[in-house]
Amino acid sequence: GIHPSLLPPWAPGPLQMSLHPSTRHIIKLTTHPSQFDVEPEPIRWAKADPHERGPVVATVTHPGRRNAVGAHSGTYSVYRAVALAAHASPAGFRPDFTNTLPPCQIGPHPAWSKPGAIVSLDPWGHLPQEIFAKRMASGELDVRPTISVTRSHLDLPEIKEAVSVGRLTPDAKFLMADGAVVTTKAAIEPVWHLPGVARRFGVEESHLRRVLYEHTGGMFPELVTRADLEIFLPPINGLTIYMVGDVATIPDPDAPLVVRLHDESYDAELFGSHASTGRLWLVYGIEECVRAAQAGGCGLIVYARQEGNALGEVAKFLVHNARAKSQQGSDVRQREEETERVTGAADVRLYELCADPLLWLGISRIHTFVTSSGAKTRAVQAAGIEIIKTVKLPASLLPPSAIAEANFKEERSKGSFAARAGSNPVSPLFGSNNGPPVPPAPLLEGPASPRRSGAPAHRFISLTSHAAQFSVSPLPVRWGAAEPASRGAVVATLAHPQHRNAIGTHNGPYAVYRAVGIAKQIIDPSRPLDLQSTEPVVTIGPYPSWYNADAIVALDPWGAMVSAPDSALSTAARARGVSVQPSIAISRFEARMPEIVEALREGRLSADGTILREGGVVSCIKASIEPVWHLPGIARRFKLDEEALRRKLFEHTGGMF
Question: What pLDDT is attached to residue 428?
Fold first, then answer.
């Protein structure tokens, strides 16, 4: 161990060192010995027999048995950690999985045991409660499903309208008389087999691990310290498959099969963005799925949560502001350049992985692929899946307000999703190598961190293989200070990590997508973001609550103002050449929802020409807000000891930070 006098005051115990033959080249120092061991459950990815393959173990009941980096439920593991800290959930709780098996059989299919075919989800993830039932019942094993399958109904106004005008005909089996669509749906958590994912991205595994660690602000050190753990549960949003029709027909190459690979667009699909085609594509895809089901086959909507081209919603709204001020229209190159200027890339969606859920379902042929995306078409074909025909959104369904976006997507689909920043084109499945692995950084050198006022005169010992990522002189931030210059900016960017004053990084789960973009050389991390013309379209605040450290603790009230060139909030950061990034973006928005159109038609609402126009278009201001937690205030809000909260957040997210 290390002498207690060398530990920080809040350390819960002595540092422990653990050695194991599988990782004898690594010396591991940890203040959480109860969370650390190295006897991982064996797993042999792509083995045909599930018992020989082994379970994915990402629970923390028996930490030494973990064979995966990360934790279940992605970003929701943070909520569980807070619940445990607040004693709202019992620490030793194990779910009862009685009657939770899928209502229909899915698999096994040949792709499940084909090396390299499925690398971003666990094909056995819907069945561990059955396969490993005895070991789970004995307490030897604590595993969780990473896929759940159930049945439901979809109730959309547009489908009801399609029935009323005769575009669709109810059959009382797949489409009810009231317009409800009967579906089988599967929720899928990402489970990455890192060697396979690296090959799919065309990069060295060691390089991918290092970039994932460094460019998420130090998320999951085990990515670089535990090369023996090949499984990673990235804290990103998963996907949902909606299956309309007879699920048993999906693997049959002769049965009609419609597929729509759809990426989330929150403001379009929930609030009906007037200028977006997102909801139009989604509804049209569902209509085609119903027709396939009624023809004796099945239709699939694969709904992936990759908001704003996987750049995140705050970034998306900033781009909206920049585009509005430049008045660009539908010119593809100009729009992409504007997005790259603000965010570093035009698109970081993981096209290379989009065929995996199709292979999980045993698909070898798609009869109708509902898309205008050349990238998705190429990725699916590269996975060995035949596409008979592609169909696009009919022009008759496009309102004039969405034509510009439709034209933009049409032109963009003719391009490639190859890396843009000077790298070689990448094949979706077997990409070229984007360069040699980066050599390890030297151990930490340089000046010691200045002692905090009132802190004990201990010397802190920090051992790291990523010296350039270590924060040694964080810029001051005084939560609740009245003056912006005194309060200071939240610094979670990575250009000058020695000045970071926040744990984590911007964009939440989308930081993982950005890191992958850097690994693939789509994004140049040395290029600073240009936030010109992204400022809020209206001024909000400051208000008295901003100056009360306990009034606002879960967001940065100044988060929309840091990017202004003359912002006093960022004075100290600018003086040191440190870039800051907004955690709030405020933009204008026009929504057109069928329910509002109906309310207007029935007289429950009246058009005023400004807020609500004829045709049901609502004008409003929208704000996207990233969580920024002031941990002392959060702990007080939850009535917790801050040290206990920090510890639970670390332990029950699989060591996220």
Answer: 34
User: 434: closest CA among 514, 522, 558, 370?
Assistant: 522
Q: Are 490 and 559 in contact (CB under 8 A)?
A: yes
The pLDDT tens digits for 304-342 are 999 889 999 999 999 989 888 876 555 667 778 888 999
Distances (CA, A) of 419 to 251, 423, 428, 516, 650: 33, 6, 11, 11, 34
Structure tokens at 503: 């744990």
Burial of residue 391 (CB within 10 Å: 0-12, 13-18, 19+) is: middle
Cβ neighbours for 395, distance < 8 A, ≥ 6 positions apart: none
One DSSP character per residue, 517-583 reads HHHTTSS-TTSPP--TT-S-SS-----GGGG-TTT--SS-TTTTTTTSTT-GGGHHHHHTT-----S
Cβ partners under 8 Å of residue 545, min gap 6:
551, 552, 557
Contacts of 328 (CB under 8 A, 6+ apart): 334, 335, 338
How far is Cα of residue 382 from the mean position of the Cα atoms in its chain?
Answer: 24
What type of residue sits at position 26? I
CA 278 – CA 212 distance, rounded (Å):
30
Question: Can you tell me the distance from the alpha carbon of 370 to that of 390, in angstroms, rounded to the nearest whole number?
Answer: 6
Letter for the amino acid at 607?
A
CA atoms 340, 343, 345, 351: torsion sign: negative
Convert 438-459 into a string of H (helix), E (strand) and C (coil). Answer: CCCCCCCCCCCCCCCCCCCCCC
Q: Tell me the Cα Rg of the chain.
A: 26
Catalytic residues, by residue number, are: 347, 349
Instruction: Let me know if 494 is exposed, middle or buried by CB neighbors in 10 A (0-12, 13-18, 19+).
Output: buried
> What angle in degrees, to the nearest 10, is found between the helix axes of 278-294 and 157-164?
50
Among 648, 650, 655, smallest CA distance to 86 is for 648
Residue 470, amino acid = F
Tens digits of residue pLDDT in 469-516: 556 789 999 999 988 889 999 999 888 888 999 999 888 889 999 999
* Cα torsion through 628, 629, 633, 637, rounded to 10: 110
Residue 612 near residue 590 (C-beta atoms within 8 A): no
Residues 504/498, Cβ–Cβ less than 8 Å: no
Concatenated DSSP letters for 97-120?
-TT-S-SS-----GGGGSTTT--S
Query: What is the Cα–Cα distance from 593 to 601, expressed in whole angstroms?
Result: 12
Element at 619 (helix H, strand E): strand 617-625
Q: pTM of the full predicted structure?
A: 0.87
3-class state of residue 273 by DSSP? strand
As given in the structure block, the two tokens for residue 188 are: 């899928």
Closest by CA position to 38, among listed 316, 229, 244: 229
- For the record, the structure tokens of 175 come out as 């489409």
Please, which residues have CB within 8 angstroms of residue 182's CB and are 6 or more apart in sequence?
A: 151, 153, 173, 174, 175, 176, 244
Q: What is the dihedral of CA 160, 161, 162, 165, to 10 degrees?
A: 130
Quick one: CA torsion of 106, 112, 118, 123, rounded to 10 degrees? Answer: 40
528/201 Cα distance (integer angstroms): 24
Handedness of CA 28, 32, 33, 34 (dihedral sign): negative
